[in-house]
Specification:
- The protein has 377 residues and is an all-alpha fold.
- The chain has a domain of 112 residues: Serine Threonine Protein Phosphatase 5, Tetratricopeptide repeat.
- The protein is built from 16 helices and no strands.
- It comes from Novipirellula herctigrandis.
- InterPro entries: TPR-like_helical_dom_sf.
- This is Tetratricopeptide repeat protein.
Amino acid sequence: MIHYVSDSMRRITSTQWTLFAIIAIIGFGQLGCRSTADSPPKVDATLGRFSSNASEAFAEGDIDDAIEQYRKAIRRAWAIDDPYESGTNAYNLAACMTSAGKDTEAKDWLLDARTELCRAKSSAGNAWLLEAKIAQQECRFEEANIYVDRAACCNPPCEGTPGGCTCCSQDPCKESCVTVIPCVGSRIKQKKATEQCEDDYNAQIHLARARLAAEVYDIKCAKQHFDCACELASEVCSEALQAELQNVAAMIHLAKGEILQAAWHFDKEAKHLRLAGNYREIPVALELAAAAYEQSGHTEIATNRMCRVARIWYGRGDSKQAWSYVQQAIRLAEYSYDESPRIRLALLVQEIEKTLADEGQALPVDTDDMMIVEPPA
């Protein structure tokens, strides 16, 4: 990835640029599978099954299966000519594509998603936000700002909120149906849910602006938008939003050169991702935390985080990927005076070696020369 670097931006280290590049990718996962407005009251059973399977696979980190299932959902949506489901599943497929590094395909599916959601008179706001994420990753910051502006012009993708694609054409003095209708009984609960959804979406807009500002080291602007997002988030019960807040906070600290503070926020992000059930992104947050802790001189904590990344990949059934992170953790453990990290790594190595042996494979390198303490019998 090539970044334009002005004279005022040359203070950043190569490690910080690497962290920024990975952060840009993180945001994609957190945008995936968001709901949009005006959902039909009853979803086709076949379509719903494919979409549900895809969403579960996406959250677990099985991107290939998620892509396959979303393609099936889209095919079914096309078969019944359902614009809302076509657009929603096209958006989710685009989120999967970005996670798989297929940005060109993702942009094509986002265009299709916006077209279908507009036909369904539903909000295309999240599709514009994801488009902005891709532009930011590709360092097209001016375009990214334009896409965020378009997202800000869309109505929030919330049930009970009018959809449509008449960008910024709503009369701000005209009361919405939500405020006109007296709220009694279940309507009060629905109104509260709608308000939280709208606050969540508006917080996403501010977070997108904060990320872009942090990218170009406009710390004042980044903090202003971040503060607005925090205020909105205080009214929203969403672990996913809390994870995004932690991610953007870390990015602002990186822009300020405060690496240890950034590491702390990456740790918090991993916690909220787990609570949100977004297991797919946890190893990315932990890997960022490990890099930040290492750069700030806390190699023992960095080792712990990298070990957790390796265990996650092993738990997902990818022993080779797990082993690649074990090697990084071993390198970090060499600088620790504590035996605990090496003992825990030894346990993981034994489990990986056993699994590979059951599959008729062996570890790719000899571990005898590595600084791993065998666990007690």
